[in-house]
Amino acid sequence: MFSRIARPAVGAARSLSTSSQNHAKVAVLGASGGIGQPLSLLLKNSPLVSHLALYDIAHTPGVAADLSHIETRANVTGFIGPDQLDSALKGCEVVVIPAGVPRKPGMTRDDLFNTNATIVATLADACARNCPEAMICIIANPVNSTIPITSEVLKKYGVYNPNRVFGVTTLDIVRANTFVADLKGLDPARVNVPVVGGHAGKTIIPLISQCTPKVEFPQDQLTALTERIQEAGTEVVKAKAGAGRWQFMQVHAAQFCHPLHGILRICAVRRDRMQVFFNTPSARGNGIEKNLGLGKLSAFEEKLVAEAIGELKASIKKGEDFVQKMK
Q1: In the chain, which segments carry CATH 3.90.110.10?
Q2: Which backbone phi and psi does 75 adopt, to 5 degrees?
Q3: Do residues 176 and 195 make contact, with C-beta atoms less than 8 angstroms apart?
Q4: Are 127 and 93 in contact (CB under 8 A)?
Q5: Helix (H, G, I), strand (E, B) or coil at 26
Q6: Could you give the CA distance from residue 145 to residue 208 in angstroms, rounded to a whole number?
Q7: pLDDT, the chain, mean
Q8: Can you give the residue ranges of the Lactate/malate dehydrogenase C-terminal domain (predicted)?
Q9: What CATH superfamily classification does 12-168 receive?
Q10: 251-304: per-residue pLDDT in tens?
Q11: Which of 48, 246, 250, 265 could lock onto 39 through a cystine, CB 3.0 to 4.6 A?
């Protein structure tokens, strides 16, 4: 299941783990796109990155040249086209994949499947061959299917490690924190709402009962709040009329991708008990070190989890079947 963790304390995003690594080579696959470019900028400014490898099917030499002028230690190299993909991934310890087409008004995440599934499978194949031990961070939607696609491709090569494949869906947590803070007049930076499940509609399950600080809502308001969190992505797509991507996604993706963070906001792990990928709180050093579980759920939240399982299983099977049918 996709596995989320609690929001780190202030400053945790800059803390180092006890990993023996000092600096890492990070690849951004889809570096010329609406998420890839600002994400690459943020990673270039990270003191934890020694080499930033930028890959896309167009424009990456220009993006790399632009970022290389920034006065930070990370060396930047641009790679363009399928012939240079393997070179981009050699020696990488972290790979982040924002590649793929964005969602347009009227589209569901599943509508993206046919295009993005092929892209993610191709990139996962290259990762398996060139950096099989790298931590792979998937942004490309539909995440409920692209995580299983990545996992199944890695399995074909015998290099799958469920503790090193991640779904970057931190924005669900951020939205939950913001919406709760707005309703309660709190500082959003001090609100932490765990979000479990997947990354589409009713599979997004905010655990308001576990919010810090403790908050309570009447049932009608709780239901409306939950539904808004679940459909927040659609709200943005409609408001932007399909123009551009989420502006704050890059910030949290960059925090997530810092290779030495001891705390992750969200990650992916297989929970065999339920036979689905599912977001639950987790902690990470050099990969997932501990799955912290769902915690104590309210009756309302237990119902949400039960309702999400079927859709998650279907999305996962869709991704797994796609890989099985690949030549």
Answers
A1: 170-254+259-315
A2: -75, 140
A3: yes
A4: no
A5: strand
A6: 26
A7: 81
A8: 169-323
A9: NAD(P)-binding Rossmann-like Domain (3.40.50.720)
A10: 445 555 544 343 334 444 444 434 445 555 554 456 666 666 788 999 999 999
A11: 250
Extended strands (E) in the chain = 2-4, 24-29, 49-56, 75-80, 94-97, 135-138, 165-167, 195-197, 204-206, 266-268, 270-271, 276-277, 282-285, 287-291
Q: Which residue matches tokens 């408001």?
A: 239
Q: To which residue do tokens 């803390």 refer? A: 15
Phi, psi of 294 (to 5 degrees): -85, -20
- The first and second tokens of residue 203, run together, are 């599979």
Predicted local confidence at residue 273, as pLDDT: 38
Catalytic residue among 59, 69, 199, 258: 199
Looking at domain 170-254+259-315, which of 3.30.70.100, 3.90.110.10, 3.40.50.1580, 3.60.15.10 is its CATH number?
3.90.110.10
The tens digit of pLDDT for each residue in 128-178 reads 999 999 999 898 989 899 999 999 999 999 999 988 888 887 888 889 999
Structure tokens at 56: 């896309």
59 is catalytic: no
The secondary structure of 50-105 as a DSSP string is EEEEEEESSSHHHHHHHHHTSSSS-EEEEEESGGGHHHHHTT-SEEEE--SPPP-T
d(CA 26, CA 96): 8
